[in-house]
Amino acid sequence: MALSRRTLTLLAVAGFAVVIVVVTVILVGATQGPHPPARGTKVVASESSKARAAAADAPAGSAELEAARYLGAQPTAVWLTPEADPVDAVGDRIAGLAAEARAQSARVAVVVYGLPGRDCGGHSAGGLDPDGYSDWTRAIGDALRDAADTSPIVLLEPDSLALAPECGNESERIAQLSDAVGAIASDRTWIYVDGGHSDWLPADRMAALIGEVDQASRAEGGRGIRGFVTNVSNFMATADEVAYAHDVAAELDGMHAIIDTSRNGAGSNGEWCNPPGRRVGEPGGTLGDDVVDTNLWVKPPGESDGECNGGPPAGQWWPEAAIELTKDAVGG
């Protein structure tokens, strides 16, 4: 018996819906798949975050508790440092993050932050000696390859390239970073090196440094990098960072960017170290275009930049900052 045109149309729509359901199930089941980051990317919100620890200790009904709970629930990159995650422990840390990512149908996103002469002796000074750094990054690479099903995102050594001209160690930094890329790279790990921010190095200067790392890391058949990350631990407005990322990428063939929007909701007041009056920015995974893969929360909001503007040492939880950053988000 012949079917009516309306019946055929309904069957076609139903079949299309089935395809959509199947595709959705596949994507969720694959922990966001082997593709590069993009709009809609979700990274793990780790149980081990300092925000969650602060929420467990905060007084009931307090603004501190409300801020810590909100920030602890947000998908945010996890910082790996040799001080907190030494070579004999960093693999287990990554394995734990991967297990959380699988449970959340999310991706592992880590900041690797431990190179020799880190921060040129500034607020986040420290890092490893050259041999120790090589061992540490190899351990990270091995662990991330074991977590390949989570399509890990690696943000490699924030500030390292943008600071290099000021520190006078450009050649050394390029060699260190390209070696680290070689140790960490795999076909399902997406690596972004430091790209400064829109009020730091000119786009062509920043691009030249990024390009040198990529070229060095591709020597003798290496995989190279996906691109660069901007605004890490800074406060520049998203529109300015998107424009800057496009300007930098225009100097580089096929490079992509990630933007840190963790604390730029009120833009910048010109300060970089614990400036007052800042707010959290757009949630991670909400932006993306042909150059900017997406935005992420990279610097965990509520953690101090250093002993400035009344803050505790770099990386420590600062309840007052957490409350201020989340005033608009939680209606405080």
Strand order within the widest beta sheet: 1-2-3-4-5-6-7
Distance between the termini: 66 Å
**Quaternary structure classification:** single chain
Summed over residues and divided by their number, the pLDDT gives a mean of: 90
- Overall shape: globular
CATH topology of the largest domain: TIM Barrel
How many individual domains? 2
Main sheet attributes: strand count, strand direction, barrel closure: 7 strands, parallel
Label the CATH architecture of the largest domain: Alpha-Beta Barrel
Report the strand count: 7
- Assign the structural class, choosing from mainly alpha, mainly beta, alpha/beta, alpha+beta, or little secondary structure: alpha/beta
- What is the H/E string? HHHEHEHEHHEHEHEEHH
Low-confidence stretches: 1-31
- Top-tier CATH class of the largest domain: Alpha Beta
Rounded to the nearest angstrom, the radius of gyration is 21 Å
The CATH homologous superfamily of the largest domain is called 1, 4-beta cellobiohydrolase
What does it look like?
The chain has two domains: 1-30; 37-330, TIM Barrel, CATH 3.20.20. Residues 1-31 have low confidence and may be disordered. It has helices spanning 5-29, 50-57, 63-72, 90-103, 130-146, 160-167, 170-184, 203-218, 238-250, 319-325, 327-330, and strands at 78-80, 109-112, 153-156, 190-194, 227-230, 256-260, 292-296. Strands 1-2-3-4-5-6-7 form a seven-stranded parallel β-sheet. With 332 residues, it is an alpha/beta fold.
